[in-house]
Specification:
It is a single chain. This protein is an alpha+beta fold. Helices cover 30% and strands 23% of the residues. The chain has 13 helices and 18 strands. The strands form three sheets. The protein has a nine-stranded antiparallel beta sheet with strand order 13-12-11-15-16-17-18-10-14. Strands 3-2-5-6-8 form a five-stranded antiparallel beta sheet.
Length: 552
């Protein structure tokens, strides 16, 4: 049941309507929510083919958190109806949506649903056909029908009583009529302890058959009496799920007459039926107990699943209970028989349901035909009355879980290399030739910057440095040269057999590395400068003949 006010232990389902699109003609409409909530009707929106201004008297419905709410969310859907406010709220179309994601997955559900239009409003896509139907019904003439379909009609000349009816081309397929809305909650509805492991339990009882005549004729004056006079009602229970309002039902078929024996011959005795044949005959030709709503869906959490798996491993099944109850008589002049109460307790039954099929990985549903046996004990047993097992009574049912209790195994790995994902290679120092080459390039770039920015007028190193700073090239020159020197040091230390990884260089070993590297760097710089000098001489020698050739 809904609550009038929110508070601790409650949740508010907030409704927001975005509108409806593609109605067959302009209509004055209202929207009604129901199913999971009490009926909540909006105020009528202005006449339109795509109404959007719907105002709900209540933009939310409030429920208590708990098992009852979870059961309703998994077993009921939120129903949305669009009604014609100008035609006594006649139903235009309806749709429904499950709010199951609000249990554990998300706090808002956006819906964009197609409204299944009723026949009376679907025909409005073809105004000419609608007018013909109205005229044939004798209620209104073709012009009146045309007036109702004016939005779908071609505009006529001023003064016309009714516009010309729109004629649809052959093969016309009307667009889908869509309603858009959302449902939002502030927090997930399901219990927090079930976030990672929960399910739904669906139980369907097809019926109970081959029941004792003493039970199925209780309250009936003769076998031909109507089953409505039966003085018992029934319940079925399994895993805490209960099916109510079971009633005695008539046979599905009349039993065929036995073939007559030929004149002068005795009728041949029919062979005893097998168990399967006997059950088939009981389902077709005998009275049975049927439930008005034969399917029940219930929410089940982590604890249920843990106990369910333990049950599969230990017993492999469970009991389904079949419980007759005395029906209250509506006619004080025809009270129930005095023995009804005692017989209802005597005929309490149970049936063992074998669920070992659900041990198979991936299996989540099973069907069973189970023998009913007496569950009454002690003083409830009436020794003079027949029993359920004596009449070979049975119940046919089905159980289904939302997910398989035993998950399917993962497919085998075809390429074992996926078990060892590729990794980035470990960092390593550049090769010796690469470190030396980078140093030589840094020296050459530094010399070129000094020649360009310091010039020949610099008197000493300090003056050259000042000119390089003014030119803005000093910092880049220094960092490039420093990085190249560090790479050379690292490479030489990696190759030095006297250096121990992870320990600082000290004493003679450190002095030898520093002096040796200094000598290497100095020689490399001298070699670079010599190459530059030779290159400049060669360039100057090539320019001199060219300049002489240009003289007159």
């Amino acid at each position: 049941p809904e609550e009038d006010e929110g508070g601790e232990g409650k949740v508010a389902f907030r409704l927001a309507l975005a509108g409806v699109t593609d109605l067959p003609c302009p209509l004055e409409t209202l929207v009604a929510f129901g199913g999971l909530c009490r009926e909540n009707r909006s105020a009528p929106a202005a006449e339109s083919e795509s109404p959007a201004e719907f105002e709900l008297p209540k933009d939310k419905f409030i429920r208590k958190l708990g098992q009852e709410l979870c059961d309703d969310v998994v077993s009921k859907q939120l129903e949305i109806s669009l009604c014609d406010a100008a035609n006594e709220n006649a139903l235009i179309g309806k749709a429904s949506i499950s709010l199951l994601p609000l249990l554990h997955d998300q706090t808002e559900v956006f819906a964009e649903l197609e409204l299944q239009l009723t026949e009376a409003y679907h025909i409005k896509w073809w105004p000419e056909k609608e007018a013909e139907l109205l005229e044939a019904a004798g209620g209104k003439d073709k012009k009146a029908a045309a007036g109702k379909a004016k939005a779908k009609a071609k505009p006529g000349a001023p003064g016309d009583e009714a516009p010309e009816l729109l004629k649809r081309p052959g093969g016309f397929v009307p667009p889908r009529t869509i309603i858009r809305f959302s449902v939002r909650v502030d927090e997930l509805v399901g219990p927090a302890e079930d976030r990672k492991d929960w399910t739904t339990l669906t139980m369907k009882v097809v019926g109970a058959f081959a029941l004792p005549d003493r039970l199925t004729t209780l309250g009936l004056a003769s076998p031909a009496d109507e089953v409505e006079l039966h003085q018992l009602k029934y319940r079925a229970m399994c895993f805490g799920a209960v099916l109510e309002n079971g009633e005695l039902a008539r046979p599905k078929e009349e039993p065929p007459e036995a073939p007559a024996a030929a004149e002068g011959e005795e009728a041949a005795e029919a062979p005893a039926p097998t168990e399967a044949e006997a059950r088939e005959r009981a389902e077709r030709f005998g009275r049975s107990v049927q439930f008005k709503e034969p399917v029940v869906v219930r929410y089940r959490g982590t604890r249920f699943l843990r106990e369910f798996r333990q049950m599969l491993n230990s017993t492999g099944g469970t009991w389904v209970y079949f419980v007759p109850e005395e029906r209250t008589s509506n006619d004080p002049k025809k009270p129930n028989l005095p023995e009804v109460g005692s017989l209802s307790k005597h005929f309490v039954g149970k049936a063992w349901v074998d669920l070992r099929a659900l041990i198979r990985p991936g299996a989540r549903a099973t069907e069973a035909c189970c023998e009913l046996r007496t569950a009454a004990v002690g003083a409830e047993v009436m020794a003079e009355e027949p029993t359920l097992q004596a009449s070979r009574a049975f119940v046919r049912l089905a159980l289904e879980l939302r997910g398989a209790p035993v998950a399917e195994p993962e497919p085998p790995i075809e390429d074992l290399r996926v078990l060892a994902p590729l990794r980035k290679p470990l960092g390593k120092f550049p090769a010796s030739s690469e470190a030396s080459l980078m140093y030589r390039e840094a020296v050459e770039a530094s010399f070129a910057a000094i020649c360009r920015d310091a010039g020949a007028g610099a008197a000493g190193a300090a003056a050259a440095v000042q000119q390089l700073k003014k030119a803005g090239s000093y910092d880049d020159l220094r960092e490039n040269l420093r990085g190249a020197v560090i790479r050379v040091f690292r490479e030489r230390m990696r190759k030095d057999t006297s250096a121990v990884p992870g320990k600082p260089l000290q004493g003679e070993v450190r002095d030898e590395l520093v002096s040796g590297t200094y000598t290497h760097l100095k020689e490399a710089a001298e070699a670079v400068l010599e190459e530059i000098r030779l290159h400049e001489l060669a360039s100057a020698g090539a320019r001199a003949p060219a300049a002489a050739a240009q003289l007159p």
